[in-house]
Amino acid sequence: MSRLTRFQRKPKELEFTLEDESGKEIIEKIKVIPLKVRNMDMMLDMGKEGKASEAIHRIIKKVLDDNGIKDYTEEEYQNMDYEFIDQILDAAMGQSVANMSDTKQKFLENIKAKQEASKK
Asked: In this structure, is residue 104 part of a structural domain?
């Protein structure tokens, strides 16, 4: 094992308190594997005009896939609460998010606006 392995962040486990269909409180855990050099294309695309939204979607879907969460519908995915997305992105990207906070913030505001509009 080389010294380079010290430069690899460990996966971060996120814990969410949610409600199931009957209203019962449940704990849902997701392990977020930090993005690596091999995922650089996703991170770089976040800074490009017109590609940021797609890159964020790819990152979120990668985290879901890494956790074996594959049985969701597109509607369920589109209705994911932006607060969960924010936490997932922070865990996946670490300090990289700070450098792209404007892009991430615009994306999250767009999701929030869409979710609020669909409630009306």
From this structure: yes
